[in-house]
Amino acid sequence: MAGLAGYLGGVAKVLVSACLVGRACRFDGKDKLLKGLLDALRAERAEAVPFCPEEAGGLGTPRPAARIVGGDGEAVAEGRARVVNDRGEDVTERFLDGARKAVEEALSNGCAVAYLKERSPSCGCAQVHSEEGVARGCGVTTALLRRAGVATVSVA
Fold first, then answer.
1. Which of 20, 37, 97, 144 is deepest in the core (most CB within 10 A)?
2. pLDDT tens for residues 78-113?
3. Could you tell me the residue ranges of all domains in the chain?
4. What is the C-alpha to C-alpha distance for residues 79 and 92, in angstroms, rounded to an integer?
5. Backbone torsions φ then ψ of 134, nearest 5 degrees
């Protein structure tokens, strides 16, 4: 977690993908616990505000894996792309709803920074799952957080 102090800069609370702090909320019903992230947050005296936008958007756990079709999270936010799960169901509105709730959670808690799970169609910062596999771009939640002025940091 090198460089964490540079991102925090005295921030008291940070939004964190809930799976990264050990919550079993991923599509497969598992977590992606990163003990190093928790240790780094403690060392910086930062409080994690865990949040799963997919669960907040009404998608259960476990749930079918999803991917962005036609672009990335920015394109979804602009109505130019959509999110589709492995069953072929369009879950775009649920992803957008969860992303909006993530922004509300971040802002209401004074989170200026969000640590997010890379490659997620919600939380990816530089890569997301798309119809072509892993592609460059951000997730839906990342796009909305950035638009709201919340800095986003890619984690594993």
1. 144
2. 999 999 999 999 999 999 999 999 999 999 999 999
3. 4-155
4. 9
5. -80, 130
Q: Which helix (H) or strand (E) holds 128?
A: strand 127-130
From residue 136, alpha-carbon distances to 21, 26, 113, 148 in Å are 25, 21, 21, 21
The DSSP symbol for 38 reads: H
Q: Are 20 and 49 in contact (CB under 8 A)?
A: no
**Burial group, residue 131, by CB count within 10 angstroms (0-12, 13-18, 19+):** exposed
The pair of three-digit structure tokens given for residue 146, joined into one six-digit string: 């950035």
Q: Which two tokens stand for residue 90?
A: 């369009």
Three-class SS state of 150: coil
Q: Of 141, 111, 125, 124, whose CA–CA distance to 46 is shortest? A: 111
DSSP code at position 71 = S
Cis bond leading into 62, ω under 30°? yes
The answer to whether the beta carbons of residues 15 and 106 sit under 8 Å apart is yes
Give the tens place of pLDDT for each residue, 104-153: 999 999 999 999 999 999 999 999 999 989 999 999 999 999 999 999 99
Return d(Cα 18, Cα 20) in angstroms, integer: 5
